[in-house]
Each structure stands twice: as C-alpha cells, then as structure tokens.
Amino acid sequence: MKDDDWQNTVNFLQQAFEDNYQLDLFKLLMTTDERSALITRVKIVKSLLEGSVNQRQLKEQLGIGIATITRGSNSLKDVSPECKAWLEKTLLNK
What we know:
Elements: H1 3-18, H2 22-29, H3 32-50, H4 55-62, H5 66-78, H6 81-92
Helix pairs in contact: 3-5, 3-6
C-alpha cells in the first residue's frame, strides 16, 4: 500500500464526513460483515480502555477469537498519547 494512496483515501473519507455522507459512503464501501467487524473493533477498543474485563472475558462477551482482541490491544499500544486521550474522552465520556 502506498502512503499517498492511504492519505488520499483518508482525505476522501474526511471530506465525506464534513459533507455528511458518512453513512452512505460506508454502506457503499463496506459489506455488512465489514461494518459488523468495525463495530466489534470499536467495542474491543472501548472495553480495553475501560479495563473492566480481561481479554478472555471479552472474547466470551463478543463471541470473537482471542487473536482479534490481541491485535486490538497491540494496536492500542501504538496510538499516540493524544489519540488515546481522545479515544478515552470519546468512548468513555471522560
């Protein structure tokens, strides 16, 4: 994947959100399964930030594999402190 292609895609998505076409665009670009997977990933990030359940409990709650949760946990470690603070504020209403 080229960095320019990724940045152009991010810019395109940002414009869609600014123009209030996010729902239409996600329906266009993502299958039902992909949208469901995205919802699950957000739930993983939220649960990991809350810290109220361990990964095995989360696996049972969401009905997903432990590897999916581990990938989410590892990805969360790579976000900037500013992004992590934003995630906490947004997802945990802090």
